[in-house]
Structures are given as C-alpha cells and as structure tokens.
Amino acid sequence: MISIIDYKAGNAPSVYNALKSLNIECKLVHHSAELEEASGIILPGVGSAGETMKSLRDMDFIPLLNELVINQKVPFLGICVGLQVLFDYSEEGNTNCLGWIPGKVSKFPASEVRVPQMGWNKVTFLRSSPLTYGVPNNSYLYFVNSYFALPTDSSYTLGSTNYHVEFCSVVSHENIHATQFHVEKSGEVGLKILENFCLLKG
C-alpha cells in the first residue's frame, strides 16, 4: 500500500488520482500512525517550504517519517516542495528542513529569469536508476518552482535541469527519491516515474 501524506500545504488528491489511474493501491494519510504499514510513502508539495514543515510538525509526522525512511528504509518519494524539504535548509522563509539530504535550497534570480519557473523543461538523467527505467533521457516534465535544490554531494543528484542555473531536479539516494517537477502533471513520462517508484522494494 502506497501512503500519500495529505497535509495542509500539499496536493495529495492529484497524486492519489494519478496512482488510481495506474491501478496502484494507495491511500491518503492524515495521521502519522497510518504510515506504519506503508510499502512506500509519497510527500507531495505545493506552496512554501516553511508551511510544509509547519504542517508536518503540527501533524506529528516528522518522528515517524525519520524512523520509517531513515532507519527502516521504506521507499520515499518527494514531489516539488516535497523535494526541497529533504535538504538541510531553504532560503524560502529561512526554513530548517528535514536534513535527509545535505545541501540547501536557493531562489532563482528574479532579475535574470521569470520567477516562478512554470511550464515544461528538460531533465537530463546522470545515471541509470530503477526510478527512471523506461524513461527517455532529456524528457520534458512539468515544473512550477521559484526555488531550486543544491546538494553538497553530487552523488545525490539523479537528474538535472537548466533554468538560468543548472540545478538538481531529481534526487535518488538509497530509498530516498524526489522530483522537483510534478510527476502527476507530466503526462505519460511522469506517470512512468510514479509507477516505477511504486514498484521499488524497501
């Protein structure tokens, strides 16, 4: 059973509908205890890093997420802001995040490019991975983001994208995966990545 965390700052119903279209067994989760039997966990995200972290704290998700994802190695997928909060720190709201991935999240320079980035952009995969099996390299996927992630260790980066700066658009490290783009809004390619994640074993 794939558990989708449904919190105040997320877009969980869209991810739920995408999984249902793939005939994948899933549920929306509103309480941390509901995660305990999950075969995989998805953290969708819209809005700000600060509001996402506040919601996760207020709903008491963080201690169990740390146990399941970091200690028990349950497969995890973050989407959009769900990628950004995996890092140590986000400039958005001066936010301390989960700290699962070393690095920080910075804002695109509004003087140089339109912010937010909104639309389709190319993702270049830097290595092979079960997450991207069957997905053509340099595929175009759908982004809505004003901030971008900068891992301190490049080995965490599975995919990169250019929007004035080259940034990490896909994270993959052990059981932790995340996409800056919205897999649930990225057509067949996005759904393939989502399906691949659901087939991963912990």
Any idea of the CATH class? Alpha Beta
CATH architecture: 3-Layer(aba) Sandwich
Give the strand line-up of the largest sheet.
2-1-3-4-13-12-11-8-9
Strand content: 25-35%
CATH topological fold name:
Rossmann fold
Within CATH, the superfamily carries the name Class I glutamine amidotransferase (GATase) domain
Low-confidence stretches: none
Q: Kindly give the count of domains.
A: 1
Total number of strands: 13
Tag the structure with descriptive keywords.
single chain, 202 residues, alpha/beta, Rossmann fold, nine-stranded mixed β-sheet, four-stranded mixed β-sheet, 23% helix, 35% strand, globular
Write up this protein.
The chain is α/β, with parallel strands linked by helices. It has one domain: Rossmann fold, CATH 3.40.50.880. It has five helices and 13 strands. The strands form two sheets. The chain has a nine-stranded mixed β-sheet. Strands 6-5-7-10 form a four-stranded mixed β-sheet, with helices on one face. The model has no long low-confidence stretch (mean pLDDT 95).
Brief characterization of the structure:
The protein is of the alpha/beta class. The chain has helices at residues 12-21, 49-58, 62-71, 81-84, 187-199; strands at 2-5, 26-29, 40-43, 76-79, 87-90, 95-96, 101-107, 117-125, 139-145, 147-151, 157-163, 165-173, 176-179.
Set down the secondary structure blueprint.
Blueprint: E1 2-5, H1 12-21, E2 26-29, E3 40-43, H2 49-58, H3 62-71, E4 76-79, H4 81-84, E5 87-90, E6 95-96, E7 101-107, E8 117-125, E9 139-145, E10 147-151, E11 157-163, E12 165-173, E13 176-179, H5 187-199
Parallel strand pairs: 1-2, 1-3, 3-4, 4-13, 5-7
Antiparallel strand pairs: 5-6, 7-10, 8-9, 8-11, 11-12, 12-13
